[in-house]
Write a structure and sequence with these properties.
The chain is about 45% helix and about 15% strand. It is an alpha/beta fold and about 325 residues long. The protein folds into three domains: about 110 residues, NadA-like (Rossmann fold, 3-Layer(aba) Sandwich), CATH 3.40.50.10800; about 80 residues, NadA-like (Rossmann fold), CATH 3.40.50.10800; about 80 residues, NadA-like (Rossmann fold). The structure holds iron/sulfur cluster.
Length: about 325
C-alpha cells in the first residue's frame, strides 16, 4: 500500500545516510542481514553474509544471538530461514520478491506425480514453496543436487522444478531424473544462448566459460565449469585462468570482481537480470528494520513437514544444524 513519506524518512537522503541508519537499527535489533549472490552491489556490501541459498540457510542457523533476520533474496529462501529458525523473526524487505520458478510447482501437483510414479523418490530443489517442500522426500540445492541424488537408493528420481538442473544431475549421476513439471525453468537463466557464448569465446579465446546448472543443456555443454553461484566464485578464485565468461544472473559479477580484483569477468548476456532479486534496496532494508516489514510466516504444520526434507539434505552433506 502507498504511504506518504514521513519527515524522518525524507530526511534520509544519501546511500551513506541509509547505510548508517541501517547499521544503527541492526545493532539495536540484534539483526542479521543476509544477501543472496544475485543482490544489488550496495545490498551485498551491506550484508553480514553473501552466499547461495544453502549457505544463507546455514548462516541464519549459525547465529544464535540474532533475533531478527533480514533476508535479501526471494520468497522461498526467506521461507527456508523461517522453517529452520522458528524462534527468529525473518523479514523480507520486498514482499513482491517471488521466484517464478518456485511457483511452477504447486503442492497439489506433487500428489499427481506421486500417483503417476508410485514409490519413486521425489527430490526438490530448494526453489520451491514450503507447502511443496512438505510433500517431498529430500531437498537439494544446485551445489549439492548431485550428491543428494547419488545418496538415494534408487536409479530413478522425480526432480523439480528446474528441468535444466534435472538434466545436469542426470548427466553427472547416470540416474534417470524425471523433471516435474516437465518444463520448469528459471526465466533469467534461459536467456543465455550457446551462440552468444561461442561468439564471446571466439573474441576471448583464453577465457573460461563458467555457468549455472539452471542454464539450458546447450549452454552447459559449452561451459568449462558448471556449478552453483558460490561454486562458480570459488572456481574463479582457484582457476589459473584470468578471464571468465559468466553465465548466471548479473548480480554475481559484483562478488566475482570483489573477490578477484585482478581477473576479468564478461557477462555471457548483459540482460540477465532477475527483477525479483533486484527488488531489495537500501531504502527497503531500512524500512524493514525500522517498521518490521515484512514478516515472513509459514504455518506451523507446514513448517514441521517441510523441515524434514531440508534436514535430510543437511544430513547428506554431513552438516549438523544443531551444532551451532
Ligand atoms: S534467478 Fe531464477 S531461480 Fe533465481 S529467483 Fe530469479 S527466477 Fe528464481
Amino acid at each position: 500500500m502507498w504511504e506518504p513519506m514521513s519527515a524522518e524518512r525524507a530526511a534520509v537522503k544519501t546511500d551513506q545516510d541509509l547505510v548508517n541508519n541501517i547499521l544503527k537499527l541492526k545493532k539495536e535489533r540484534k539483526a542479521l542481514i543476509l544477501a543472496h549472490n544475485y543482490q544489488r552491489p550496495e545490498v551485498q556490501d551491506l550484508a553480514d553474509y553473501v552466499d547461495d541459498s544453502v549457505g544463507l540457510a546455514k548462516r541464519a542457523v549459525e547465529e544464535p544471538d540474532a533475533e531478527v533476520v533480514v533476508h535479501c533474496s526471494v520468497d522461498f529462501m526467506a521461507e527456508t530461514a523461517v522453517i529452520l529458525n522458528p524462534e527468529k523473526k525473518v523479514l523480507m524487505p520486498s514482499p513482491g520478491a517471488r521466484c517464478p520458478m518456485a511457483a511452477m510447482l504447486p503442492a497439489f501437483q506433487i500428489h499427481l506425480w506421486k500417483e503417476k510414479y508410485p514409490g519413486i523418490p521425489i527430490v526438490l530443489y530448494v526453489n520451491t514453496h514450503a507447502e511443496t517442500k512438505a510433500e517431498c522426500d529430500v531437498c537439494c540445492t544446485s551445489a549439492n543436487a548431485v550428491k543428494v541424488v547419488e545418496s538415494l537408493d534408487s536409479d530413478t528420481v522425480l526432480f523439480g522444478p528446474d528441468a535444466n538442473l534435472a538434466w545436469y544431475v542426470q548427466q553427472k549421476t547416470g540416474k534417470k531424473t524425471i523433471p516435474i513439471p516437465e518444463r520448469g525453468f528459471c526465466q533469467t537463466h534461459v536467456l543465455f544462448l550457446k551462440e552468444d557464448i561461442l561468439l564471446l569465446k571466439e573474441e576471448n579465446p583464453s577465457a573460461e566459460v563458467i555457468a549455472h546448472p539452471e542454464c539450458s543443456p546447450e549452454v552447459q555443454k559449452v561451459a568449462d565449469f558448471v556449478g552453483s553461484t558460490t561454486q562458480m566464485c570459488t572456481h574463479a578464485t582457484n582457476s589459473a585462468a584470468s578471464k571468465f565468461i559468466v553465465a548466471t544472473e548479473m548480480g554475481i559479477l559484483h562478488r566475482l570482481k570483489r573477490e578477484n580484483p585482478k581477473k576479468t569477468f564478461i557477462p555471457a548476456y548483459e540482460g540477465a537480470w532477475c527483477v525479483n532479486m533486484k527488488l531489495n534496496t537500501l531504502q527497503r532494508i531500512y524500512l524493514a528494520l525500522k517498521e518490521d516489514r515484512y514478516k515472513v510466516e509459514v504455518p506451523r504444520d507446514i513448517a514441521r513437514k517441510a523441515k524434514l526434507p531440508l534436514e535430510r539434505m543437511f544430513e547428506m552433506m554431513n552438516i549438523d544444524l544443531d551444532a551451532k
